[in-house]
Amino acid sequence: MIKVLFICHGNICRSPMAEFLLKDIVKKRGIAEQFYIRSAATSTEEIWNGVGNPVHPGTRKKLAELGISCEGKRAVQLTKADYNTYDYLICMDTMNLKNTVKICGRDREDKIYRLLDFTKDTRDVADPWYTGNFDRTYEDVMLGLESFLQYLREEGKIEE
Fold first, then answer.
1. Is 8 in a helix, a strand, or coil?
2. Of 123, 144, 145, 155, which is least packed with CB atoms within 10 Å of its CB?
3. What are the pLDDT digits (tens) for 97-133?
4. Is residue 159 a part of any domain in this protein?
5. What is the CATH number of the domain that holds 131?
6. What is the pTM of this model?
7. What is the DSSP letter of 116?
8. Domain-located, residue 29
9. Is 117 annotated as catalytic?
10. Does 93 participate in catalysis according to the annotation?
């Protein structure tokens, strides 16, 4: 089983979008049993008294347009233990990659990536918290997810 953790700053916009889109993709391709997929935040800004905020309305709306529910998902913070739990810790941007290393320690097993590092267009995923453009974020995330799955196929880690 391939264990994937998507990471962004607050775990309410980009990382849950990636989490639920990948869950939907692998389910539709009949390979969901090969994956364990979650998401987390590098900050506690969206977590109050131990309870995380729900997914941002813009992300919920974009997912709902695609028939995907993220009901019940609340922000959680990345922990040092997550490094040992997951095979891939996939960050949405450079700052969150740096913060993931601060939280988890040195990437001694080469598990920490930016999502778009799997593409030819290596850059940060657009942050809709600042842009307000959830469609652009969706396009970035889908590009990254398709490239990540292609990478896993080429590495012989999944069969479709």
1. strand
2. 155
3. 999 999 999 999 999 999 999 999 999 999 999 999 9
4. no
5. 3.40.50.2300
6. 0.97
7. G
8. yes
9. no
10. no
